[in-house]
Amino acid sequence: MKKFFTFLCSVLFLILLSPGPLGAQDDDDKILNELEEDRKKSTAQAVQMNDMSENVKKQLSSVPEALKQLGDSKLNPASLMDEKVVLSLKEALKNNPLKTLPKEEVRSLIFEKIQNQKVKTYLMNHPKILDTWIEILQDDKALPSAVGIFLRKSDLKLYGFIWLGLLIFSWIFKKIFFSKDWTFLHRLFMSILMSLSVSVISFGIFYTMFYDELSPAVKIIVKNWRQRNI
Q1: Are 110 and 62 in contact (CB under 8 A)?
Q2: Using CA of residue 141, residue 146, residue 151, residue 154, what is the dihedral sign?
Q3: Do residues 80 and 39 make contact, with C-beta atoms less than 8 angstroms apart?
Q4: Residue 189: CA atoms inside 13 Å, Cβ hemisphere, count?
Q5: pLDDT band at residue 13, thresholds of 50, 70 and 90?
Q6: Which range has highest mean pLDDT (6-15, 33-42, 219-228)?
Q7: Exposure string (b/e) for 13-45, b if CB count within 10 Å is 16 or more?
Q8: What is the 8-class DSSP label of residue 98?
Q9: What is the predicted pLDDT for the residue at 66?
Q10: Residue 35 — very low, low, confident or very high, per pLDDT cuts 50/70/90?
C-alpha cells in the first residue's frame, strides 16, 4: 500500500510539473503575444502624445517670440493697435496646434497656464464653461476671426463714441426721470435696470458691427448653452 501511495504521489508530482497539453501552451503564447502587442501600442501612443504635447508647447511659445521680433514682448491694448502684431497673431492662430490635441490635453494645458487659483477652482466647478472655452480654442475660425476686430480701427473708434454717447444718455435720463422722492430700493432697482438696458444695447451694437468677427465664437457659446439646458 505504501508503495502504491508513493507511486500515486510521484505521478501527481509529474503531472503538476508537466507544461500541459500543446494546445494550452499555444493559447498561453498567443495571450502573451497579444499582451506584448498591446504594450507596444500603448508605449507608441504615449510617445506620440508626448511628442505632440511638446510640439504644441513649442509652437505656442513661438508666438511671443514672433511678437518680440515685431517690437512687442507681450499682448496689451496698445500692441493690438499695431496692424503687424495683429496680423502675426492672426496667422499664428490660424495654424492653431491645439486643434489636433484631445480635449483632456488642452484642459491640462489650460490649468497649467492659469496662475489664479480662484479661476482654476471656478473652471473645475463649471466644466461646461471650460468645455466651451476649449472648443473655442480648438476652432479654426473663432479666435482668428475675433482678433480681426483690431484691424478695423475706424469702426472701433466709432463704437467708442457710441458707447460714450450711451453713457451720457444714461446719465441724462437718470437726471430727468429719476425722482428724488423714490425710496432707496426703488432708486437702486431702476439704476440696475437702466445699467442692464444700456449694457444690452451696447453689446447688441457691438455684435452687429463686428458680426463677421464674433459670430464663430458666439455660435459655439450658444450651442453649448443650449446643450446645457436640454
Answers
A1: no
A2: positive
A3: no
A4: 6
A5: very low
A6: 219-228
A7: eeeeeeeeeeeeeeeeeeeeeeeeeeeeeeeee
A8: G
A9: 46
A10: low
